[in-house]
Amino acid sequence: MKKLTIIGGGPAGYAAALYASNFDLEVTLIESDTLGGTCLNRGCIPAKYWLHVAELNHEIETSSDFGININEKTIDWAKTAEKRFEIINNLVSGIGMLLNSKKVNVLEGWGTIKDKNNVLIKKADGEEIVLESDFILLATGSKPRSIPNIEIDNEYVITSDSALNWEQPPNKVCVIGAGAIGCEFASLLNDLGSEVTVVELAKEILPGLDKRTSGELRKQLSKRGVNFKLGTSVDSVNDKSVYFSDGDNENFECVLVAVGRAPLTENIGLEEVGIKINNGFVEANLQTLQTAVENIYALGDIVDGTPQLAHVAFAEAISSVTHIATGDNSPINYDAIPYVVYTRPELAEVGVNSDKAKDLGIKINQSQHSFAGIGRAMIQNQNEGLVKVYSEENGPIVGASVCGPAAGEMIHELMYMIGWEALPEEASEFIHAHPTLSEAIGESLMSLSGRGLH
Question: Which of 379, 56, 64, 81 is nearest to 191 (CA)?
């Protein structure tokens, strides 16, 4: 029986361990912290929990719009935190039980590659173990990035890791960075009553995503009271004051640094065995996820050139284990990966947008449809936003972007169209139920095929 050692127990690592149970492999999983990694313990799950709490708070505060009058609303912050930990603990223990049921050997400690067939595990009590392996999977994950001239003290200047541990939201916050993390925190803090300023060096929020839908999200967040300082950087942070590159300065109760995530690839023995690295990211063959050392694979947030998303990590786990167990390539279609920003409203994108198409030299057609006249959106009082769909000239659908209610759910219909290279006229023939939010997709497809309805 071939031996597989996995370093890292986040989405990439634990998914690889679980999937490997489908094959004749002896699997050991090494984790230095807690099973589930950043996503489950400090990222996706707790962040989306707080976003849900914030949305509930907003719905209660606006319930009078629907004739439902609530005399008094209070928030028990200790209770909200207790519920968050209950959800996380259930998920973590569930992963542990699944790994145990699949006979995965889970070891606590720091894993380092000793050579291409051996992994050194340093336990917290000082004990060291060397594991011999036929294959090694690197899934060490990522950490919040910092800014050179700003010290993270985890009190006044914090990252997303410590922000999720607030006993209650601060009254006034400066968020540095308007990527997905920064926008999500701006949205939830605003819904919980905080005064929020977001500073971003780029000219629009969510750099790299469709400018029209990103601009729509910014407009809606601005209408709610979020202040954006675009094309601006932070020069320094001193004495509870933030000094901006435009000459302004302002006092804040807290500064949240949300400028992306850096790969955790230090001190795990990569250079010693000849694994190639680019700015901390591991270079891998995206057909197989193999590194320059053919029996060592990399997946998840550390892979160079792939999105740092939990669902990408799951897919890379399946792809790499398939290659290890069968020798067959099972490459991921990175062109059809959905990207979701869980703000209110949500923004989701898949495939190419107009800027990416220009960079790739693809001539495209595009159409869009507003949620303004969509009955279900009007019922939910969420009829701002739009759907955009792109297709190659005389060719298949290649991209889409949605800003509106439930965009993160709606994007998957468009994901299939891109993955299966559907033509606009083919996709537009399918009927969407009425009244639903996804009618906006149907209308966009009809327009893209040259035969719009409304």
Answer: 56
Residues in the chain: 454
In a domain, 151, yes or no: no
Are 137 and 34 in the same domain? yes
pLDDT band at residue 401 using 50, 70 and 90 as cut-offs? very high
The answer to whether position 150 is within a domain reads no
Dihedral sign, CA of 216, 217, 223, 228? negative
Q: Quick one: 112 and 51 in the same domain?
A: yes
Report the number of distinct structural domains present in the chain.
3
Is pTM, for the whole model, over 0.85?
A: yes
- For residue 217, the model assigns a pLDDT of 98
Please, how many CA atoms are within 13 Å of residue 293, restricted to the half-sphere of its CB? 24
| pLDDT tens-digit series, residues 179-213 | 999 999 999 999 999 999 999 999 999 999 999 99
Q: Are strands 195-200 and 227-230 parallel, antiparallel or unpaired?
A: parallel
Distances (CA, A) of 197 to 19, 234, 344, 403: 43, 12, 16, 21
Which residue among 52, 58, 311, 434 is the active-site one? Answer: 434
* Phi, psi (degrees; rounded to nearest 5) at 61: -70, -25
Q: Is 434 a catalytic residue?
A: yes
CATH classification of the domain holding 38: 3.50.50.60
Domain that holds residue 319: 2-144+262-334
The two structure tokens encoding residue 209: 């995503």
42 & 125 share domain = yes
Q: Which helix (H) or strand (E) holds 404?
A: strand 397-404
The strand pairing partners of 290, in sequence order, are 285, 297
Q: At 203, phi and psi to the nearest 5?
A: -85, -10
Residue 189 and residue 251 in one domain: yes
- For residue 208, give both structure tokens: 């790299």
C-alpha pair distances (Å), 96 with each of 317, 325, 361: 17, 23, 47
Residue ending a domain, choose from 200, 224, 259:
259
Q: Read off the pLDDT band of 114 (50, 70, 90).
A: very high
Q: pLDDT band for position 454 (50/70/90)?
A: confident
Query: 128 with 111, same domain?
Result: yes
DSSP, residue by residue, 173-195: EEEE--SHHHHHHHHHHHHTT-E
Summarize pLDDT for 139-186 with one digit per residue, the tens.
999 999 999 889 999 999 999 988 888 888 999 999 999 999 999 999
Distance between CA atoms of residues 265 and 219, nearest Å: 38
Mean pLDDT estimate for the chain: 95
Is 453 within the bounds of a domain?
no
Looking at residue 185, the DSSP 8-state letter turns out to be H
Radius of gyration of the chain measured on its C-alpha atoms = 23
Kindly tell me if the per-residue pLDDT of 305 is higher than 90.
Answer: yes
Does the pLDDT of residue 6 top 90, yes or no? yes
